[in-house]
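Hi everyone,

Forwarding the result from last night's run.
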Amino acid sequence: MNYFDQAENFANENFSNYDGFSNFNDAYNYADGGSEGTALSSLPYVINIANSTTADVSSVVFLNANLAGNSTAPAFGNAAAITITMDGTITYAEFLQSVKSSPFKVGQMYLQSANANQPLKTLTIINREATGRKVELPINPRLDPMQNQAGVSIVRTSFTVDAFTSISTTILGSATLIVSLYPQEVIDVARSLSGQTVAKSYSKPNLSQLQMPSSNGLVG
């Protein structure tokens, strides 16, 4: 059993959410290599969520590819004050389309804002199934004990992002929240054409000096 499998088992046994739904856990189970060679470092999907008004806007939803993908930019189904954009060479709408065919598992989220209070606002991760079942997981970000700067927080809860996954939060007045989603696995069906597994694994990003416990009780 490799490190990824051990960490997954450890998380499921020790950090199961309240109803045992496996799409959420507190795993720190990025790959550390394997039969396909050394895993590439995880690079983030960076989403920018801006509030153009001085009033707080609650229940702002991002991801939710099945619904938001059919909504109009730049609010994507949110209040008119909200603008959602994507860093990089693709648009946010294109990113949502990619989620439908290439779901991924987030290992860490890095939250940034010029407003020091914004990255500490509660996030609610919502996962729905075609059966109608819905699971919600509230996340209360906290300052990393190893960080010196304000305006950032790291969320280490692992969760799956597919077309039914959404995240809801409050965007403070005149604030912009930058959400960096660091994948630990991405599904790419084209990999099977070259005899590889469809799941591409990534190594843990170096976001913090904080070391988390492994399944044998040691830090690393």
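The first strand starts at residue 24 and ends at 25.

Cheers,
N.
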